[in-house]
Amino acid sequence: xxxxxxxxxxxxxxxxxxxxxxxxxxxxxxxxxxxxxxxxxxxxxxxxxxxxxxxxxxxxxxxxxxxxxxxxxxxxxxxxxxxxxxxxxxxxxxxxxxxxxxxxxxxxxxxxxxxxxxxxxxxxxxxxxxxxxxxxxxxxxxxxxxxxxxxxxxxxxxxxxxxxxxxxxxxxxxxxxxxxxxxxxxxxxxxxxxxxxxxxxxxxxxxxxxxxxxxxxxxxxxxxxxxxxxxxxxxxxxxxxxxxxxxxxxxxxxxxxxxxxxxxxxxxxxxxxxxxxxxxxxxxxxxxxxxxxxxxxxxxxxxxxxxxxxxxxxxxxxxxxxxxxxxxxxxxxxxxxxxxxxxxxxxxxxxxxxxxxxxxxxxxxxxxxxxxxxxxxxxxxxxxxxxxxxxxxxxxxxxxxxxxxxxxxxxxxxxxxxxxxxxxxxxxxxxxxxxxxxxxxxxxxxxxxxxxxxxxxxxxxxxxxxxxxxxxxxxxxxxxxxxxxxxxxxxxxxxxxxxxxxxxxxxxxxxxxxxxxxxxxxxxxxxxxxxxxxxxxxxxxxxxxxxxxxxxxxxxxxxxxxxxxxxxxxxxxxxxxxxxxxxxxxxxxxxxxxxxxxxxxxxxxxxxxxxxxxxxxxxxxxxxxxxxxxxxxxxxxxxx
Length: 640
Known about the structure:
By secondary structure, this protein is mainly α. The protein has 33 helices and five strands.
């Protein structure tokens, strides 16, 4: 839809008011037509179904009115008028039990302050600003209302203000420690704020009081996953699946269990659970994509037909459509239909890019702000700062650069533990500098210059303390494989001057195309959804790495993926020498190392090294001209 068409479209509330006016004039067919138009534009808007219920009651169509009103209260349980009409209709139809239940819901709402009911109703329909205004005005008069404060926290969470949501929920729990719904919200906020250990602690408290509560078990399992404890959640999800009828919940549980099985290297069982998820919900886009994301999996002709049929449905959720496009792209790529595959990848990326806010110039500006702060003089003046602990090994660079291979090689050494892509360093940078709202990168890097030696040392100790929960093997060294840490090399060096830093680099065309055909998590690596964006990001990465090499010469070892593939023995020995580790043959047999791996390359590094990925992008060369043009001199300069 064009911008002009969007501008000419009536807004949601105008259409609702129009339908009300038509109903009051007893022009019910026109009112229902207006509501149908409103539903097409805003299918999750509860008050349109309430209004439809009013219209249908007025013309005596009780069955259709019931359906509309039930949809309204499913979307928004805080609609008193709906419960009132539901009670009356059920009584008229002789459905006593249902009438009494509707009456109880209405009575509950009438006992609440009207402001709380109004704010809840606005929140349910996504009207965050007016809901917050109502609540803040109410809390000015009744600041001890924990329900209002919890709702305000949920609004701030919806607005991506994790810090304020966390603070509000802490206030609620200080006043009402037995408020379990608030504690569950608090656990969710902690998890979203990348504090999984604390989140799991909250879930454990909830399970003490109610060990069979499904929501508490799911929250506990989600925190375990974030901590890298995948083995126990396999059984937890199996427990939740016992006796559960096929449906959306079963589909999700099967998917989550399959993900854990995949991470633990139990591929056959993972495939069975992905298949079970699709049996419960045939258009489950993320389950189809997860099968494709195994990389070594091949779809059958029947699968491809089902993928096409599911992707053609007009009523799909947007993320399902995106997942299906990427899955079909992988299926067609495996068949050798590269033109069809490219069309799918291009469509999936375009849809995903339209949902985000990423702009390459914002990331470029962040890099430009970082460089003058982190100068040679900056580091010279702070020599000897931080914690002199050599345990961390940081593997960084761009996604799809071969970093999982390097991590797997190192994790095959008896002195090194592989953990996962840890989020601590990026979180610290955000706390110090603030986060750019468009890309999450440091907003004011000048704040780094205001840190004292004592503060930097505390950060180093905090990192070692907070990452201890991921270290379970008691080995002297551990790997943090967060790619985005290339932005934070300056901070890492300040905090941990003896840590090893490895920059894994891949040939630009191969790396960029591999990112283009990979759908990442819902908020991760937003630069990957367009070839021009990817190329600009690659150039920004090279530019920043050249800066780090200039101001911290010799600090970072550059590891070229192609070199390791071409001569594994030499590549492994160079890597171990830099880490001051003795050679161990197990590092050459990395594919035999059994450990949890969360990245898209998990199945690939469980096989011996191969060269097939080096030139894979060449199958798509007819469509990659814009990528090549945008990369420019990075095509050769990446080796320097």
